[in-house]
Amino acid sequence: MNVDSPSVSQRDEQRLLHVSRDELLDHQSRRLRNIVSWAYERVPYYRGMFQEHGIGPQDIRDIEDLTKLPLLTKDAFRATYPFGLFAVPQSQLTRIHASSGTTGKPTVVGYTAEDLSTWANLMARSLTVAGARRGDTVQIAFNYGLFTGGLGAHYGAEAAGCVVVPASTGNTDRQVDLILDLGPKVILCTPSYLRVLLTAMAARGITKEQCSLKVAVLGAEQWSENFRNRIITDFPYNITPVNIYGLSEIMGPGVACENGETLDGLTLWEDHFLAEIIDPKTLRPVPSGELGELVITCLTKEALPIVRYRTGDLTRLLPPTWSTFQRIDRISGRADDMFIVRGLNIFPSTIEEIICQFPELGTDYQIHLSRPMHLDEMELHCESSYPLASATSTNDIADRLTKLVQMKTGVSSKVKICAPGILANLGGSKVKRIFDSRMGKI
Amino acid sequence: MNVDSPSVSQRDEQRLLHVSRDELLDHQSRRLRNIVSWAYERVPYYRGMFQEHGIGPQDIRDIEDLTKLPLLTKDAFRATYPFGLFAVPQSQLTRIHASSGTTGKPTVVGYTAEDLSTWANLMARSLTVAGARRGDTVQIAFNYGLFTGGLGAHYGAEAAGCVVVPASTGNTDRQVDLILDLGPKVILCTPSYLRVLLTAMAARGITKEQCSLKVAVLGAEQWSENFRNRIITDFPYNITPVNIYGLSEIMGPGVACENGETLDGLTLWEDHFLAEIIDPKTLRPVPSGELGELVITCLTKEALPIVRYRTGDLTRLLPPTWSTFQRIDRISGRADDMFIVRGLNIFPSTIEEIICQFPELGTDYQIHLSRPMHLDEMELHCESSYPLASATSTNDIADRLTKLVQMKTGVSSKVKICAPGILANLGGSKVKRIFDSRMGKI
């Protein structure tokens, strides 16, 4: 339902993806002026913030003026819980989502009918760019409910004219049955859950010919280029893993998505989102192309205007390739996921990149941090890909891994290798990688 | 999105609900002719069935001719799994749902965009009749995913112009937080889960003034009039429990719904569904107003035409009251839920009606059937509503319950009364009432 006529929308989309940068910048500036006024006039919290910084809508003429505006953090959601950042009364919303809120109250977000339509169209654009086509069957194995993954993907797949199988999470055997019986070409899930599914399929002896899947659109968890390579080399299927990005404060899945043919980073839908990369400590812009924290401004969100939101995600901005839009690199960590061991900054993604280089190891892992004797200790738990022949081979792999981790991070770690499947993320929800039992946790 | 202009759609709906019976019959006959041709021409399984009965589309002129057509059972889904009953190619579907398939393969159903639009509109009509209004917040605590409850309710609430909180099932504490923080007027869930929620709310000391809920739309489980009374008397809230009916083979939730003001049985949306009541043994129509198995013909379903489907649900057909449409009585059992103890037919609903008459008992219960010594034994497990003062009072309640069950069913049973909350359905999914450990089970 609510699917635009394919010919019209596809033509519009094609044009839009290839407008000139100048046209895009004009468009962005116009939308930025609108949204800043919208936020200022309708949300007392923004008005207060802007006034504190001695700035008003009249000071924002084009996107060059963006940095004059103050940054917004997750604290703003907590301070105004549940509806204080909203620009429309609750009765004008069509849907409310909420993040899980690991500590205290959840982060509540809301959408007008227009916002949901924008979201569905951007998610449809993402799926199309990833490789889905009208009439393709799409199995959605993200969780449905308050989490934006399931319903966000669902509405997008519908808007793309696909046949949606709303499998939701869990029940791996049944997911495999659905793949065999309904023949989906595309699946959406977390990267760790894709691996669980493919492992189950391989264990059931399912051949490449029996597997209809061609594209896996992976999100809601950070993953590495080596993880992608491992999906391709470890399983006898012909599935292209494609990266998608989103977060509920901004919209949900479909903020940026990788092109399934070029696989060269995530194209950011710049007609709706402005991106900046800042140094998370100085809050200043980093030099072009360098790693830093992603800050997003939503140009079109009605219900919950978002101006300069610190996403907490670390990435870099990359120039356009196949379309007019700039790209972001895969998320290489979260500002708050970074952990410090003996004074050295480490991202889980660095550890993952290293582990994935070992074909003898699976891609699931845990990082255990402790401080038994005043000094931090790091222990990595990995799985072997297959039962290892001897204690000698286990020790050999552990030694090589320890050396590589020492070389890349500067930290000496212990390594524990366990049997295949022990650490797998069976639930399909976000996976926990870091187990920090240190007091203080610097 | 895809919400019709409220003025137009509401006016149309009002007119439709009050057309004359004659106009409705004409409309039904026209649609019946169409759908029978559609099924015959596009689905070889139907063509084969019809031909076996020596009947063709030309024999169906009006709804009087309906009984000439053969009955369809769930076996047809199994025999044609997964897509053999479909009238359109898979690529023309918009969504696929599947029932859980407790034994073997699930029952796969599919919808075109038009089917989904019909479903959303009928579910919106149901919610409106139940008491929801444009701009009201609606919390949906049915499971989202392949089960039709969550997504069916979701699209309906959106089409009704409501603000949807897609809470899905589980996490009762969080559900209560959402009720307190987001102020929903309407909740949709299973009757047993509503009781769990209200019990949790009462335990947290939440007052009537703090509880925004006014209407609970309850489905996916059979429940009794006494259960409704107990919801009203046991909790200090002012919530009207309203009955809704649906099943995935027919559409999903919203096939019939009770009027929240008259509370006099479920109005069946006869512009889209034809109902018959048959004797499940003789397969003949039962006399008007008598209990039997509900058979439904869908007048408008494109993707998966349904002609004379035996739902397995036992109910009776009731004349129209507040609208032109006939009503069905609350489902009083399933043809296959009925169990036989010492040669006597018993429905769980009969037991539930009796238990709910005891204010000292909760509404959760289990029926345990065994055959320790060649003879069937029935034991009822109930919960007390509050910790009971003495063994004497426990024995007294058990005695009275045993006598009442003997009187109403003819079977003498043992009764075990346990502490409050032991038997509660915490998961929010379908509750299990019967535990039958007999061999053979007849």
From TrEMBL, chains A, B:
Assembly description: Monomer.
One GO biological process term: phenylacetate catabolic process
Catalytic reaction(s) noted: 2-phenylacetate + ATP + CoA = phenylacetyl-CoA + AMP + diphosphate
Main function: Catalyzes the activation of phenylacetic acid (PA) to phenylacetyl-CoA (PA-CoA).
Keywords for this protein: Ligase, Nucleotide-binding, Phosphopantetheine, Phosphoprotein
Organism: Komagataeibacter europaeus NBRC 3261
Family: Belongs to the phenylacetyl-CoA ligase family.
Alphabetized SUPFAM superfamilies for the sequence: Acetyl-CoA synthetase-like
Ranges of residues in domain AMP-dependent ligase C-terminal: 343-438
Pathway noted in the entry: Aromatic compound metabolism; phenylacetate degradation
CDD domains: PaaK
Name of this chain's protein: Phenylacetate-coenzyme A ligase
UniProt-recorded Gene Ontology molecular function terms: nucleotide binding; phenylacetate-CoA ligase activity
Segments forming domain AMP-dependent synthetase/ligase: 99-296
EC numbers, comma separated: 6.2.1.30
Source lineage: Bacteria, Pseudomonadati, Pseudomonadota, Alphaproteobacteria, Acetobacterales
Superkingdom of origin: Bacteria
